[in-house]
Design goal:
28% of the residues lie in helices and 28% in strands. The chain has 261 residues and is of the alpha/beta class. The protein has a seven-stranded mixed sheet, sandwiched between helices. It is globular, with a radius of gyration of 18 Å. The N terminus is likely disordered.
Length: 261
Amino acid sequence: MPLADGAHTRLIPYQIRFSDQKHILDQNEEWCEVKIDGEWQRIRFHDYNRIYQHPGLYEALFYHRLKCCSPSRVVGLLDDVMSDFPQSASDLRVLDVGAGNGMVGHELRGSGVRHVTGVDIIPEAREAAFRDRPHTYRDYFIEDLCNLPIHVYQQLRDARFNCLTIVAALGFDDIPTDAFTAAYNLISSNGWLAFNIKEDFLHHSDDTGFCSLINKLHRDRFIQIEAYRRYRHRLSDQGRQLFYVAMIATKTRDIPADYLN
């Protein structure tokens, strides 16, 4: 079973089995059983801290079995949009939020980006990224973006990021709207935003807040949407197609502290 190009993980042919139940689970409720050290263990798909502890399990589950393609789709769309501008990938200083074990960072480096900094809230994510892709990130912070220590905030501001990537991390309580806006404000004006989100979260019935946030930012010209693409993010545990929307936008100015109120 091959892993993603550039992974430094040993090739481990994990045995994975899915539930045969008929009831359709929400994405944050899906689970599987994985044979680890001779024993079957039940793991929720969103228990990333457990998954990252096992080299190659994230790739085996999401990329090999469930055909996830979001890192390459979002970074590829960013590349395509940037071809219409004088800027090149080598000019980017990227803040990769919800960086996980480095799949998006790896795609960015492969596209020519030289400076990528990761942020996640799970310590196991940083450990997995440095274990599996040790040369991907210039730095990697384990922090809550809504409660950054002053010295970390200053470090991030001093890095002069001009691109923000957030892939497969919005909604489901992974990265809430206030964390998104905090990350947004760390990017310079006229910088790039490259992110994706489940299409259901862009409907008016959405209760995560992202539909109203993105519409409000666009309406009030905080962002200029450059590209919007619907695509199959991955398969569900029962083989259904799960569709996300990838967006590339440019930032015009910071979001004031009282804006969302």
